[in-house]
Amino acid sequence: MANLKRCLGVDLGANSVKVVELRREGDAVRIVRAVTKPLDLLPNSPPEERAEATSAAVRELLREEKIALKQAVFSVPGQSVFIKRVRLPRTTEERLHRIINYEARQQIPFPLDKTLLEFQIFDEPGDPQVEVLLVAIKRDFIESFMRTITRCRLKPVAISVSSLALFNYHLFDGAAPDLLGLTAKAERAERRSKGKRKRLRLSLRRRKGGAEEEKEEAAEHPAPQMVEEEDTDLDLGEETDLDLGEDVDFGDFEDLDLGVEDVKAFLNIGATTLDIVIARFGKRKSLGFTRSVPIAGNEMTKLVMDRLRLESFAEAEELKCTQCVAVSDGVDPGSLLPNANAEASNAATALINRLVAEIRRTLDFFVSQPDGVTVDSVVISGGASQMPNLGPYIEDKIGLLVERAEGPTSEHLVTDAQPREGWHGYFPAIGLALSGMGLGKIAIDFLPTNLKDIRQFKGKLVEIAILAGCLAVSVGFGMQMGEANVEWYDQRIQSMQQSVMRAQPIVNDGEQALEARRRIKTQFGELAKMVPWREYWAKIYLEVISNCRPSQVFLTNVEMTGYGQILIQGRSFTPDAIATYAQRINQETSAYIQTGEDPATQLPMVEVYTDPIPHVTQRGETQTGFTLFMRTHTRTSSQSVPYRDLSPRAALGLQQDAMRGGAFPGDRRGQQGNRRPQPGEAFMR
Q: In angstroms, rounded to a whole number, what is the distance separating the alpha carbons of residues 582 and 628?
């Protein structure tokens, strides 16, 4: 948290707001003022109405009391946070943070992505483990709380927790020298004084030893005369007696830790929450356990209101504060309070019994922990703690000494004014202000990250000013060094520009080559798209050729030429079977013909050219040989166009053959003057 010389502690309660101003004065902290303002609200008021009334009350209180200080520490209710104390093995800082995040995921009962997590590590020398305090709160709650703080027109330096603020106050009130650093100063002074005493004893021993050696050399009978001469001839005066008394340094036992500690439970009974804080006051002053119970003064007022059938909450609150007393069974309330209302007292006592049950459960749970110990005494505070006979009643129920906190007791926490309503409700607010001054042992802070960064920036203005000065000197020196090299860099730039101009033609040639390469790559891409389509139709044709073959027809060769043509050769004993075969192929391939406006979406058609060839077998049987010449093409309307899926090279070869008028492959009549079919012509025999 911050380390201010002056700070406000603002406690936004359910029934009132309290503001405490503290100021550091040497080895003490002065309470400049402690003021409060009640809230005219019902317990069930809407959150937005409550936030507006609370912020308005703070503004009015600051104006009425003429408080100009703006730096303030606020607190959220203890029941809105999750607090867990864990012990982890001692390790590096980075690994310890990873372990803490893992433990937080295991312990916190709500999602971490919607949670603000704060932790504080307490490292005691010589302990193989470190103690970590985990505190988590829902992000939405802090965002809503920040809107209320903004309306108060104060500058928040931290957001703590009410129960932790209560612990910080009682720890400072009981151990102020430790938190103010006075104990450390005294220990350093004591060590310096102890070192001086040890040096004095060493000097006396050396003087004493030197005198004894001289006497041993001069004495004729050393043994019988040594003690006598030591007492008579050695002149050390009073220093000798002092040295004999200081040979045993009883101050060495002052640091001996006998393990004795005082364990106290602090109860703050507010309007809506009972904060229970267990503190251990030994050599290691630490937080033992904390818990917040949503049962307190307003619940007691509601019971009184229902029991007496009162119409307003304010009337029941007034009756509770003036005519209620904690009464045991069989005891007349009038004997404890002259104007006591018996029925109202019985109703209030019913709620007190619930509080006692929660207190007993908390104490038993603390004792059951691995490091738990028995609580020695209980200290109560808060608005509801002023009920007559409340302390003795709780003491009788839990069997522990119960006392009421009346106000600051430390000589290092001084004040000039006494609040009209007493100190019992101001302890959390004082603890908040102490945290803002850096005097709280627990420094949990839920202030948003951006405001923390601003606070840290303002706290390091001196360091930033020094860095800015060093930066200015560095910039000036760098500018001087840079100006000396500007001319050299200009010459280098001019030389490079000339090199760029000479290389420009080469760059242009390279760009043209790249453009040509891109065009060729595009053409190859278009050709590659045709190959799968072409192979697809080749498979279809082969399937048709196989399925349409009559049993009297025997195939000897099936070949697909480079021009998109299919050559089928075979023999048959019956010429009619050849015609049937050709007719079937025509019928099957005609099913794939499609017409449309876009030729790219049309399917090819197969035309057949036959050439029967007589053949005599070795047995003397006559067979008719044939060649089926199939050319694939697409058809648009009534005209035929060449097969469109030819590669550029194949299309060129087909065009040259057509111009020469050569015969089809396998056409023996081509030499007799038969003309080779031209691209696009249909040959149907």
A: 8
Q: What's the angle, vertex CA 109, arms to CA 108 and CA 113, rounded to 5?
A: 70
CA-wise closest residue to 268 among 385, 418, 368: 385
Tell how strand 115-122 and strand 81-89 pair up.
unpaired
Q: Do 39 and 15 form a contact (C-beta atoms < 8 A)?
A: yes
Q: Please give the Cα distance from 261 to 279 (Å, whole number).
A: 10
3-state secondary structure 236-296: CCHHHHHHHHHCCCHHHHHHCCCCCCEEEEEEEECCCCEEEEEEEECCCCEEEEEEEECCC
Let me know: does 664 contact 677? Beta carbons within 8 Å: yes
User: Do residues 626 and 557 make contact, with C-beta atoms less than 8 angstroms apart?
Assistant: no
Nearest to 29 by CA among 410, 536, 306, 347: 410
Q: Which DSSP category does 311 fall into?
A: S
Read off the tokens for 182. 């006075």
Which one has a higher pLDDT value, 290 or 227?
Answer: 290
419: nearest Cα among 32, 54, 67? 32
Question: Contact 542/558 with Cβ under 8 angstroms?
Answer: yes
**Strand pairing category for 622-633 and 613-616:** antiparallel
For the CA atoms of 4, 5, 8, 9, the dihedral, rounded to the nearest 10 degrees, stands at 70
- CA-only gyration radius of the chain, Å: 52
Return the top range by mean pLDDT from 83-92, 156-165, 464-473, 600-609. 156-165
φ, ψ (nearest 5 deg) of residue 247: -60, -35
3-state helix, strand, coil in the chain (%, to 5): 50, 20, 30
- Alpha helices (H) in 139-181, listed in sequence order: 139-151, 162-180
Higher pLDDT, 87 or 685: 87
**Which residues lie closer than 8 Å to 77 by C-beta, 6 or more apart?**
161, 162, 272, 273, 292
H or E element, residue 159? strand 155-161
Contact indicator for 23, 32 with CB cutoff of 8 Å: yes
Q: Which residue from 20, 23, 152, 60 is spatially nearest to 419, judged by alpha carbons? A: 20
DSSP β-bridge partners for residue 10: 19
Name the pairing type of β-strands 413-415 and 605-610: unpaired
622, containing H or E segment: strand 622-633
- Lowest average pLDDT, out of 134-148, 178-192, 349-363, goes to 178-192
Place of tokens 């648009």: 636
How many helices (DSSP H) and strands (DSSP E) are in the chain? 17, 21
Nearest to 611 by CA among 663, 653, 563: 663
Question: What integer pLDDT is reported at residue 250 of this predicted model?
Answer: 43
Those residues with Cβ within 8 angstroms of residue 534's Cβ, 6 or more apart along the chain or in another chain: 564, 645
Question: What phi and psi, each to the nearest 5 degrees, are found at residue 139?
Answer: -65, -35
Position of tokens 């029991």?
307
Q: 472: which 2 tokens?
A: 């200015």
d(CA 55, CA 145): 11
Residues whose CB falls within 8 Å of the CB of residue 108, separated by 6 or more in sequence, listed in order:
82, 84, 115, 117, 134, 136
238: number of Cβ within 10 Å: 7
**Closest by alpha carbon to 50, among 208, 365, 271?**
271
Give pLDDT tens digits for 219-267: 544 443 333 333 334 343 444 343 434 444 444 444 444 556 889 999 9
Q: Give the per-residue pLDDT at 509.
A: 80
Distance CA 444, CA 385 (A): 27
Please choose, from the candidates 265, 263, 270, 316, the residue with its C-alpha nearest in 3D space to the C-alpha of residue 293: 270
Residue with more model confidence, 4 or 654: 4
Q: Do 36 and 18 form a contact (C-beta atoms < 8 A)?
A: yes
Cα angle 612, 615, 621 (rounded to 5 degrees) comes to: 125
Residue 104 in tokens? 């937080």
**Other CB atoms closer than 10 Å to residue 420's CB: what's the count?**
8
